[in-house]
Amino acid sequence: MPYTIHNHCTQCGSCVPECPMGAIQVEHQHYWIDPALCDNCATVAGGPQCVIHCPIEMPPSPLKAKKGRWKENDRVATSPDLFLNGKTNTFASAIVMWEGCNLLAQRQSLPWQRDATGTFYYERQVKQGRGQLRFWLRAEAFSLMAAGTAPSPSPPTVEANSCVAKAPASIASIEKLDIRSACLHLIYAAHAVALDHPWEQTFVISDRQIEQYLGLDKRRDLNKTAKIILIRELVQQSCGLDVEVHWPQQGRIPKFSILRSPLWHLQEIQPNLQEDEAGRRHLVGMTFHIQAGQWAKYFLNQSGCKEGSAFYQYGLLPRSLLQTVMGIWQQHEGAARIMLWFLFKSKLGMEQRITVPTLMRVAYGQETLQQGYSHREDRKRLLRTFEGDLEVLNHYGLKPIFDPETYPPEIQPLWAKLADLPEDAEEALEFWMMDGGNSSRLTDAAPRGKWNRLMQARILRLEIPPDWQQRSSKRDKQRNRSRTKTANKKTVTTPRSLSGEQIVAARKQLGMSQRSLAEKTGKSQSWIRDVENGRFRIKLQDQNLLKKVLGLS
Ligand code: SF4
Ligand code: SF4
Hints:
There is one protein chain. Residues 144-165, 471-477 and 486-494 have low confidence and may be disordered. Among the domains are: 89-317, no CATH class; 349-427 and 450-467, no CATH class; 495-553, 434 Repressor (Amino-terminal Domain) (Orthogonal Bundle). The chain contains 22 helices and 17 strands. The strands form 6 sheets. A 5-stranded antiparallel beta sheet has the order 6-7-8-10-11, covered by helices on one side. Strands 9-13-12 form a 3-stranded antiparallel beta sheet. It is 39% helix and 16% strand. Strand 12 (264-275) and strand 13 (281-292) form a beta hairpin. The chain is elongated. It has helices at 49-52, 95-106, 140-147, 171-175, 181-192, 207-214, 224-238, 295-299, 302-307, 319-328, 333-345, 356-364, 366-374, 376-395, 414-417, 425-437, 450-454, 474-491, 500-509, 514-521, 525-532, 540-550; strands at residues 3-4, 24-27, 30-33, 61-62, 88-92, 113-114, 120-126, 131-137, 202-206, 241-247, 256-262, 264-275, 281-292, 314-318, 354-355, 400-402, 458-462. The protein is an alpha+beta fold. The structure holds iron/sulfur cluster (2 copies). One iron/sulfur cluster (SF4) is lined by residues 5, 9-15, 31, 50, 53-54, 56, 59-60.
């Protein structure tokens, strides 16, 4: 149990140098003990040093968790809450944000390189190699975790931060990053988009806001102090990235370079302390002051975009994504990585063919994939994990649509094949009987050469859950308008589209199961179920086919 300082403290400061953990901090000339750092002097002979060296009658004492709610006291005003509609918020979605998110999620799995000084960096080529992004992790992002609340350097007043902070010396330190810090990075990207000049303005977020965005407010297994400590660690890690950008000329926008500077400036962390009836100081909250780095001047500049000198790139951040990542990161890290990666990928368009090796690289890294190629046992393990992660994605609404040519049912995961299992008991029985009569059964072992076939397989796209729908950009709106015009023209000659209800009614009238309709139309049973549930518009060609088989005029 950590110790806490009493309100009789005379601020003499004698205890500060004696604390072996550096846990005693000062806030507005009041001393307090950071519960994340205090270990009760468990390994120090003589016990708590702050108690031994305190000259007053009421020295620091063990902190007892206060039961019940804390009264609201004056807290620093924060920036407006995100997710006002309960579901989504705009966020900065430039490639700098994407790669920052990938770095925090994929960590040591990325191809890190070392420069001449032995410093690790991650580089991504852009625009066919005409430009580059480079990222570093500042060592202080890790030392901060140990040292408590010291903020990162103030934002530079000049364009580039010439003082180059030390980066971690080993991949082992990069491994210590917590994937959940990627969620904080996305939260900052959502706050930054609300500012006119985010590279000059600060936004303020409280632990309470972050708790709600991440769904931590519903966690009963963590007490208030544990949540605050976790949030602070994630904030510090996500603010530990430096970026350097070299961007080539793109249309009217001239080429530009941003020298190495922080992606996010963590300007200040303010603890919120309250005293209980016995005068003991408790940490009841924290407020974080953050500013976007210089990248925002080039990629999140609305007025610059109008003038043609900068980009203004944003997308829609679903709150459910943050909460899902917070829920699955431990058991299904690969699925969490794919989700975070796909948030940006989906912005590039709906038709996104993705090869299985690309997804595996995102989820587990190149090295793990390479091991799969070389070792049978690793391959089996990787396949199991991959299929499980695809199932998790499917469960959370990112339904993989397998390419029927390269990713046919015999190499698909069992859960995907069982998606065809009818809900109706009689139909389900018929399903299994028919399956039993087939030369190959759904539950058969994987065919030989499954791995090699998977390495050539593609997923046509991951369906996006309804709350992931991107807000239409100007270009999308124009595209949609022209599509609508074309569609309107077509409606003159196109017959009325077939609804899901009509299909169900016609099928049942013929006493046909979903499976037999699937066989008669040459479609999969899950396709039939999806059209019956109205999950997508049916192509004209398929409508004609269904009408023919169902005898509809
Ligand atoms: S009990 Fe030990 S570790 Fe905790 S604040 Fe006091 S001196 Fe520091
Ligand atoms: S807790 Fe005791 S030693 Fe520490 S500053 Fe207060 S009075 Fe001084």
